[in-house]
Amino acid sequence: MSSRLVPLLFTDVPGLDHVSSALEREPCGYPGGVAGSVVSSLASVTRAGVGGAWALGAAGARTAGRVAPVAARTGLRAAEGSGRVAVSAVRQGVSAAAGVPARAVRAGRVLADLHPRRHTRQVWASHGRAHIEVRGLDLGPSRRERLTGGVTRALRGLNGVRWAEVNAVTGQVLLSFDERRVGVDRLLNTVRAVEKAQGVRDADFPWAQPVTPGDDAPVAAVTAELLVDCAAVAAGLARRVFRLPSLPRVVPVAVAALELERGLRRPLVRRIGPLETDLLLSLAGAVVGGLYGGVGMPAVDAANRILLLREIRARRQVWERRERDLCPGPACVPHTRPVRHLRGRARPPGPVEWWEARLAPTAPLTAAAVFALTGSTGRAADALLAAVPRAARYGREAFAATVGRELARRGVVPLDPSALRLLDVVSAVVVDSAVLVREGGRPAPTAATVLAAARATGARVVFTEDERIRELLCPSDEIVEGRERLADRVCALRDHGEGVLVISGRDAEALAAADIAVAVPDAPGAEASWSADLVCVDGLQDAWRILRAVTAARVVSRRCVRLALAASATGTVLALVGRRHGVLRALTPVHVASLLALLWSTRTARHALR
Fold first, then answer.
1. Which residues are bridge partners to 172 per DSSP?
2. What is the dihedral sign for C-alpha 57, 61, 64, 66?
């Protein structure tokens, strides 16, 4: 398979706009030369008769002599340009077609990776750059040092590899190579050979390692869920048209219990991993929704999956554009991994988690009350299903997906997009003051706007001590004095139960300690902030957008919780007194509220980042 095109799902085939036009302009003196020749020839005819006629003939011959080569060159260039366009289109089509089987195989491996630790290796390659995950780097310092040295030496020894360095933060070897001289398959085989020699060929990867924007796993999972949602919609319609029997009530009740009580998922997560657990529960929910509750739930699920796919596509596109900017050369690859401090207290719950924690013990009691009053297990099951706060979850997910897509479209690189799902738990914003100062020692033009956005979040705002921005500070702002490390203050805030967002340029340890890490590079070509979750390559304006999203996120979550509460209450009433087989069933308000939450959250996210 060619290494020039990474055949990733839902990635656009590049256009042909990079092919320059072959019809170049004519030489500047050409039109004037023709006119001058003609005028000179006419004058010669008038003055000298036959001699002038001879001069006209000579001028015409000279003109024809100039026109013929130019026309020939223009025709050849046009033909050559058309040939290049055709060859480029054929190559891209062949590469895309050749990549389809590889994409399918990799997607299958990702979906079938049902293990406590991840077996599938992350690999990304495009336009002479590659990120290849290395096994065994988490097995101790001595093993990591031997693997790092062995992998880099082996890859640098290949003909066509310009440079290779192991990124200590991502656990991947980052390299630049000549695609005409060495392919991705050979690079992979070289890495595998070193792993085998070091005895780590069968080692697994930790699920805690973030999935890079170029990896296939999120695309494969969401695509599978979307396909199942569509099949569930079709199954629900077929069941209604042909009056087929529905699933036993115990099946949807069991799925609802798993959705309400997250503690029941932990054994499954430990056994098959978090990604596969979410995938299986999503697939089960879609199937149950289609075969028991009709088309409402899988239809809303499908709309949510479409938003997620749009976010993933935007992430992949910005990664393709900005990957080289994150790390222009080997000097930008971090060789040490920042210390990751464990939390002293759990992360504060957001509005959705707060509501779910109080709903989990009351939902079974409500279902039991419905059963006691009606004597119907079906009505009790409907009451339990209506209690699941789907509108709150859909609203927050739609908001995060839209924020991620809009930020990626503006050039922000999401190294760990899961951080966007924590925007509504931020209670402390920590800003490294160095990012607010430009090279001349004065505050950046957008510094005051960023500070105002930080204060508008309603969180406590903390700055590092810097005389250059003192005039922009308010009495309510907290200051990290020069003798205190920024990472220590971040850890102290976390230990007090705060949800911490950090904006910094180079402090990798403070970024690694944050719940949401936003990196703002201070100069082009600076060391890549691989410890960050979001990298604002274009500067403070993107950091301002992220702070605006934080302000809107908590409002969105709270309103979606209220919407879910109203839907659950209405659904419980319908389960108690409504018609079991009528058009307006107990789950109808839940589906309507979920759709409204999706639409409203998407609109709010777009408005917040405008």
1. 133, 167
2. negative
Tens-place pLDDT, residues 500-541:
999 999 899 999 999 999 999 876 556 668 999 999 988 899
- In the three-class reduction of DSSP (H, G, I as helix; E, B as strand; rest coil), residue 517 is classed as strand
76-83, long-range: CB < 8 A, 24+ apart: 77/22, 77/23, 77/24, 78/22, 78/23, 79/22, 80/22, 81/19, 81/20, 81/21, 81/22, 81/23, 82/22
- 401 in Cβ contact with 433 (< 8 Å): no
Distance CA 371, CA 368 (A): 5
Residue with tokens 């990298």: 535
pTM over 0.85: no
Walk across the sheet containing 478-480 and list its strands.
412-414, 534-536, 516-519, 500-504, 428-431, 460-464, 478-480
User: Of 161-165, 168-172, 231-235, 300-304, where does mean pLDDT reach its minimum?
Assistant: 231-235
Q: Which amino acid is at 416?
A: D
pLDDT (tens digit per residue) in 29-86: 333 343 343 334 333 333 433 343 333 344 444 434 443 444 445 444 444 444 444 4
Collapsing DSSP states into helix, strand and coil, what is residue 410?
coil
Instruction: Please tell me the distance from the alpha carbon of residue 334 to that of residue 327, in angstroms, as a whole number.
Output: 10
Q: What is the mean pLDDT of the chain?
A: 80
460-464/478-480 β-pairing: parallel
What is the three-state SS of 98-126?
Answer: HHHHHHHHHHHHHHCCCCCCECCCCEEEE
Q: What are phi and psi of 180, to 5 degrees?
A: -80, -15
One-letter amino acid at 374 equals T
Q: For position 444, what pLDDT does the model report? A: 92
Q: Which of 354, 348, 336, 385 is nearest to 499 (CA)?
A: 348
Residue with tokens 């590899």: 161
Residue 208 has pLDDT above 60, yes or no: yes
